[in-house]
Write a structure and sequence with these properties.
heterodimer, A: 202 residues, alpha/beta, Rossmann fold, seven-stranded mixed beta sheet, four-stranded antiparallel beta sheet, 28% helix, globular, B: 287 residues, Serum Albumin, Chain A, Domain 1, 3 domains, three-stranded antiparallel beta sheet
Amino acid sequence: MIWIGDVLVSRGEGGVYNERMLGGSRVWEPYRSKLSALYHVGNGVELYPSMRVLYLGAANGTTVSHVADYTEVVYAVEFAPRPMQDLIEVARRRKNVIPIMADATRPDRYALVVEAVDMVYQDVAQPDQASIAIRNCAFLRPEGNLVLMLKTRSVDVRKDPEVVFDETLKALKEAGFTVQESVWLVPYHQDHAAIICTKPLR
Amino acid sequence: MQSYWFGDINDGLCSPFTGNIDTFVSRMLTLSTTMETFTPLCWEHAVACGVCKDRSDYLSKLQAVCIAAAERSIRDQYARKDAELLQMVRTLDEIDTVINLLSERSADWYMVRHPAFSRKYHRTPAPRLVKTIREKSRGALGRVAGEIEQLGETRSLLAKEVSARANDVMPNTSALIGGLVAARLMAEAGGLFPLSRLPASAIQVLGAKTALFSHLKTRTPSPKHGIIFQHRRVHNAPRDSRGRVARVLSGKLAIAARIDYFRGEPVPEFLEAAQKRIDLAGKGNCL
């Protein structure tokens, strides 16, 4: 990852969402982007130029644009039409963003478009986040990384965030994943946790 | 055989799909597979197929098709009749908020200019107060009051349009509870399809989020009604039967919303029976 002092940046065409520029690079705000927050509070997954990424819950393409700066291609899945309009605009400016308007809970609908990827990144506001991740890891190559941004409040508002966190970890381990890192994203995002797992070889 | 967006692969042999971008989009939107049996896509096949020259050509073709597909999906979604109604209802509710805010503020301002003025014991309705402020104030304050009145006119025009559109988009729900309230229910649920999938109990408390969650978290009493309270049948009902009316009404609304989504036309037999049942609940008869 590229750091200028203690500021995380990415190199690419600016002006996507009025982001600050620093020495010609785009500042990647941890308060706006959960992935950036992960790099600030934990280790995260090092992005590299030949990397292929499946990004679930792409929203307006803000974080997508930073990931695209670091990687070869980003398959960006988003379901809602309003953010999709913005995402398409990002895709027009970035050759390596492939926008897919589909429901992340139904990977069969885009299975014939997406290739095998090195990383699955998931940031969806759904109750069954672990099972969505597991289903989408059909696209993940063995030893590839799953980065799950757990919105505990979307899973169940009545449950204690810690409980939701433990349950999700358990579900991922049962599915055969090795959990590498799991951190809360405080102080940048409340009640949000990041879980990084590795897919087993077989 | 395994189909991909660029063609079909059969025993290692590829037959490319030919056509323009529109036919590619149609293909992409209809393709589906089961996750158990599918073989992951391999971009080299597309080159072998002759669909593209190399990796970067593959990505740019795929991107073009994906953008076109997404644009078509967006167009289709926005073309649904409830998409515009949703925006109309939200605009209406926001205009209400703005009118209330500005009226309160201009009243406070007016009271500074006229220290002897008070609204206590007079019960001046807000519209008449705004009219007074407009007539008696010079400069920006008078202009603000004028704008509030203009906004009020826009609001009633919009309310009529919302009502009319709701009668068209959701005829059964509108017949039971009125176009405006029906449209509000739809907007709160996020569309006609999401509304049609809600259970009656959820429709009953739609729009009572704060009360519902405080009930779920602590032991406050559960809310009896949300948006449906706005209908006269609920708020005119005596206190002790209000909960019952709300429950019966929302039960019928859940059915009406499903008819509206799947059939899209009024069903008189259903409406008649439903009205009768709701009236019965209001009279204190519980079945």
